[in-house]
Design brief:
The strands form 2 sheets. A 6-stranded mixed beta sheet has the order 6-7-8-3-9-10, sandwiched between helices. Helix 4 crosses helix 5. It starts with a strand and ends with a strand. The longest helix has 17 residues. The radius of gyration is 17 Å and the shape is globular. The chain has a single domain, classed as P-loop containing nucleotide triphosphate hydrolases (Rossmann fold, 3-Layer(aba) Sandwich). By secondary structure, the chain is an alpha/beta fold. It binds adenosine-5'-diphosphate (ADP) and magnesium ion (MG). The site of adenosine-5'-diphosphate has 12 residues, from strand 1, strand 2 and helix 1. Magnesium ion binds next to helix 1.
Length: 231
């Protein structure tokens, strides 16, 4: 493994058991991602994109094959180790997944609370991160008091506050209008370029995938193409 490799996936398979019927969501997928890359994962509905992202985010385990995050093989970890690894992955979802009774800063602090970071330190880090995503004046608003774009900014801040190995986004603009989607992707561009954060984004939206230098296309649980755009 190259020291610059943050993710190494080899012949990854995931089969769901639907009653007695096996569903082959991933049929052997291999690729590597280096630090600082911006990768989009495209493909029709049901092609295995979310399944792949969930495994990269250590939310789910492979049925076969291997997946290593910064050289740590995910398949060999026990539940505690997996939970620890999950803390080093920044996940952003289509429907934001914020806690409605917590304000913006409470939501951003949450992963630090779980990680046992002392109160003062986590408050300071969460404030910094909310300022970075342009929400310095919205820290005490609850999700219901924020627009869709602002909610997604909170989700991005929450994903980044633990200084994760990479930022994983599953249809992050799927619930936003196109102008707001563009603003969120501007933010993601900045995070990628200024912080050097590795970004893997699953999307249907060509405007979103056009931001990424590298595009991996999944069809029926397999990689159909994996191309780097040189313009
Ligand atoms: N928990 C599950 N149980 C059974 N089948 C599933 C489950 N999750 C996903 N699938 C199936 O696996 C395939 C890939 O799903 P998914 O990864 O969600 O695709 P995508 O995100 O590309 O739309 C689909 O056929 C889907 O129906
Ligand atoms: Mg999906």
């Amino acid at each position: 493994m190259n020291t610059n490799t943050v993710l190494e996936v080899h012949d990854l398979k995931r089969t769901y058991q639907l009653g007695s019927i096996p569903v082959h969501a991933l049929r052997g997928v291999s690729f590597q991602v280096n630090a600082g890359e911006f990768v989009s994962v495209l493909g029709p509905s049901g092609s295995g994109k979310s399944t792949l992202l969930n495994m990269i985010g250590a939310l789910d385990r492979p049925s076969e094959g291997t997946l290593a995050i910064r050289g740590t093989e995910v398949g060999t970890l026990n539940d505690n180790q997996l939970a620890e690894l999950r803390q080093r992955v920044g996940f952003v979802f289509q429907f934001f997944n914020l806690i409605s009774r917590l304000d913006a800063i409470g939501n951003v602090e949450l992963p630090l609370t779980i990680a046992g970071v002392p109160a003062e330190e986590r408050r300071a880090k969460a404030e910094q991160m909310l300022e970075k995503v342009g929400l310095g004046d919205r820290m005490h608003h609850k999700p219901s008091e924020l627009s869709g774009g602002e909610r997604q900014r909170v989700a991005v801040a929450r994903a980044l506050v633990t200084d994760p190995s990479f930022l994983l986004m599953d249809e992050p603009t799927g619930n936003l209008d196109s102008v707001t989607a563009g603003e969120i992707m501007d933010l993601v561009d900045t995070v990628n370029q200024d912080l050097g954060m590795t970004v893997i984004v699953v999307t249907h939206d060509p405007d979103v995938s056009s931001r990424a230098r590298r595009k991996i296309r999944l069809v029926d649980g397999q990689i159909d193409s994996d191309e780097v755009n040189n313009n």
